[in-house]
Specification:
With 413 residues, the protein is α+β, with helices and mostly antiparallel strands. It contains 13 helices and 19 strands. The protein has helices spanning 27-44, 55-62, 68-73, 116-119, 123-142, 155-163, 171-179, 184-207, 214-227, 290-309, 316-322, 328-331, 357-360; strands at residues 10-14, 17-21, 49-52, 78-82, 87-90, 105-109, 147-150, 167-170, 232-233, 238-240, 260-265, 268-269, 275-276, 279-284, 339-342, 346-351, 371-378, 387-395, 400-402. It has a 6-stranded mixed sheet, with helices on both faces. A 5-stranded antiparallel sheet has the order 16-15-17-18-19. Strands 9-12-13 form a 3-stranded antiparallel sheet, with helices on one face. Helix 8 (184-207) crosses helix 9 (214-227). The longest helix has 24 residues, at 184-207.
């Protein structure tokens, strides 16, 4: 799906039937925008180019995908983006089956892999061969610039590049800044991801009955995402009853009981590779308890107050300072951040709680074109249950626009 022109048909399966759809925007326009964003940042940092192994970064740079999860833990495919020319993709198997027709790619090259499973006792020798090959390709466009960036790579590879005289810089500082501002086309693709995500969430809600396991309920989200043209889900964050507090327990074989709070965080990589990151808490039953209503009201107030704090031009510190003040009984179990960016996945910036600014905060500015996820977890330390809410919003020239239409449990308030 990711290699098609706007006019070409995409076949997806929806609710058991095959449907034909066209992309909601000009995909090549999005691809060219993303490559230009990377190259602008390379020029700004005076870098000859960037070597990308992180599969979200290779996707952003080329829109070519190939076994993304497998290649995330095996350094088997990578991309080189020069500051002033089209990208070179080192594709697993050396074939362009998944990148043919994509703009912004100069050529496909067979990779030299030196991760241990592939190379065994030949790691050092293969890493040296890899570095020599990279040096040859970098020199084609570098003009003598020996400053390059790498996002992630085994230390032996970096050592070999340094031995060849390269000054290696952090590639994530390049890519996170490049991915920060979304084009109109990207926003359109993110809306498609949200649409599929919300359809899958509705399937979850219809399946939620006492006795269903957390895993079986979570499987409904996976099914809806894949059937709708989505790709994968990054986490397993669904829990019920006493497993909702504290947050970050992964879903299990626990049967959900009547009266349980059920909380989840989608972290869903949907159609066209874009993330839909929303959270909701539901009741498996008819009437919430007073304690459940109290927790939910606090989480809802935090979400709504903090969305209201966002507007373009504000510094990250200003946003942190003006956000909802968490009552002391919920402070120790707070979510790790107030908000974070999102695009192909969770991205820069991460906006910290005011109490964490000194230890964890950093500078930055809220800018139009950012997409931000506003987070809340409310649970008393030692309490039975907790509420997880999250809303995804676009920063516009004048303020904020919500991406999700998922309802909150307003009647609990």
């Amino acid at each position: 799906m990711n290699v098609l022109k706007t006019s070409e048909l995409v076949t997806v399966r929806q609710h058991g039937a095959m449907e034909h759809t066209t992309p909601p925007c000009d995909l090549d326009e999005v691809r060219n925008y993303r490559l230009a964003r990377i190259q602008e940042e390379l020029v700004r940092q005076d870098l000859a180019g960037i070597i990308l192994y992180d599969q979200l970064n290779t996707r952003y740079a080329t829109d070519a995908t190939n076994m993304q999860i497998w290649c995330s833990h095996n350094e088997a495919r990578y991309v080189y983006v020069p500051a002033n020319s089209e990208a070179v993709i080192f594709e697993y198997g050396g074939k362009n089956l998944l990148s043919e027709g994509l703009p912004g790619i100069d050529r496909t090259v067979k990779p030299i892999s030196f991760f241990y499973m592939s190379a065994g006792q030949h790691v050092a020798e293969r890493a040296k061969q890899w570095a020599v090959q990279m040096d040859s390709i970098i020199r084609e466009h570098s003009g003598g610039n020996r400053r390059i960036a790498i996002d992630r790579l085994a230390p032996v590879g970096i050592q070999e590049m340094e031995a060849l005289g390269y000054e290696v810089h952090d590639g994530f500082s390049v890519m996170e800044k490049a991915r920060e501002i979304k084009s109109a086309g990207e926003i359109t693709l993110m809306r498609k991801s949200i649409e599929v995500c919300e359809q899958a969430i509705q399937q979850m809600r219809e399946a939620m009955k006492p006795g269903i396991t957390e895993n079986a309920l979570w499987a409904e989200l996976h099914h809806g995402n894949i059937a709708g043209g989505g790709e994968w889900i990054e986490t397993r964050l669904l829990s019920s009853g006493p497993r909702t507090n504290p947050w970050f327990r992964e879903c299990s074989m626990r049967p959900i009981e009547k009266g349980d709070m059920v909380s989840f965080d989608t972290d869903l990589i949907g159609p066209y590779g874009y993330c839909s990151d929303v959270s909701r808490s539901w009741l498996c039953g008819d009437r919430p308890s007073d304690e459940q209503r109290k927790l939910y009201a606090a989480a809802y107030e935090q979400i709504e107050t903090n969305i209201g704090v966002l507007r373009p031009g504000r510094t990250l510190h200003e946003v942190s300072t003006d956000c909802w003040q968490i009552p002391p009984e919920y402070l120790s179990n707070r979510y790790p951040s107030l908000m974070h960016g999102v695009g192909l996945a969770d991205e820069y910036p991460s906006i910290k709680h005011q109490v964490d600014l000194t230890a964890k905060g950093y500078d930055g500015v809220v800018r139009p074109g950012m997409v931000i996820c506003v987070e809340s977890f409310i649970g008393v330390e030692g309490g039975r249950e907790g509420v997880k809410l999250e809303e995804q919003v676009i920063i516009t020239e004048s303020g904020v626009e919500r991406m999700s239409s998922l309802p909150f449990e307003i009647d609990w308030l």
